[in-house]
């Protein structure tokens, strides 16, 4: 199982952009799905976007048209480009790997999480 480390968070005004990066400790070539998730204080962790090993993306409705997920199997990274950010996007963002492609749709299915990266959208 690869270990993942998130980076790229920060403070950005509404309407701004950020690019998050998820770097793996090993090859992600055979990892069926890698997802980005977020958790705001007092809220459950939720799926933001996920991408399959073949590059097929899946987005939560709340971010469609604003966020884009990218996967690079040669660099072992999965990035999340976030545009037109809103205050309600404020959260800690995490990535996680679903080796077999069966659990990615529900963050409660994962046992382990990394540190995450904080995104704050505020003027």
Characterization of this structure:
- The protein is mainly beta and 123 residues long.
- The chain contains no helices and 10 strands.
- The protein has strands at residues 4-7, 10-12, 18-24, 33-39, 46-52, 57-59, 67-72, 77-82, 91-98, 117-121.
- The strands form 2 sheets. The chain has a 6-stranded mixed beta sheet with strand order 2-10-9-4-5-6, with no helix packed on it. A 4-stranded antiparallel beta sheet has the order 1-3-8-7, with no helix packed on it.
- The model has no long low-confidence stretch (mean pLDDT 97).
Question: In a nutshell, what does this entry contain?
Answer:
Strand 7 (67-72) and strand 8 form a beta hairpin. This protein has no helices and 10 strands.
Mean pLDDT: 97
Major beta sheet summary = 6 strands, mixed
Provide the succession of SSEs.
Answer: EEEEEEEEEE
Termini Cα gap: 39 Å
Structural class: mainly beta
What is the number of E strands? Answer: 10
**pLDDT < 50 runs, ≥5 residues:** none
Strand content: over 45%
| Neighbour order of strands in the largest sheet | 2-10-9-4-5-6
Calculate Rg over CA atoms: 13 Å
Helical content band: under 10%
The total of helices stands at: 0
Oligomeric state of the chains present here? single chain
Task: Give the CA-based shape.
Answer: globular
């Amino acid at each position: 199982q690869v270990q993942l480390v998130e980076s790229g968070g920060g403070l950005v005004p509404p309407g701004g952009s950020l690019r998050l990066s998820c770097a793996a400790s090993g090859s992600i070539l055979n990892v069926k799905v890698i997802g980005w998730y977020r958790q705001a204080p007092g809220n459950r962790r939720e799926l933001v976007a996920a991408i399959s090993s073949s590059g097929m993306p899946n987005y939560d409705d709340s971010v469609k048209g604003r966020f884009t997920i990218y996967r690079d199997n040669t660099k072992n990274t999965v990035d999340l480009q976030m545009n037109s950010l809103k205050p309600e996007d404020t959260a800690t963002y995490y990535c996680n790997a679903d080796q077999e492609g069966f659990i990615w749709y529900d963050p409660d299915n994962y046992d382990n999480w990394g540190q995450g990266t904080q995104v704050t959208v505020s003027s």
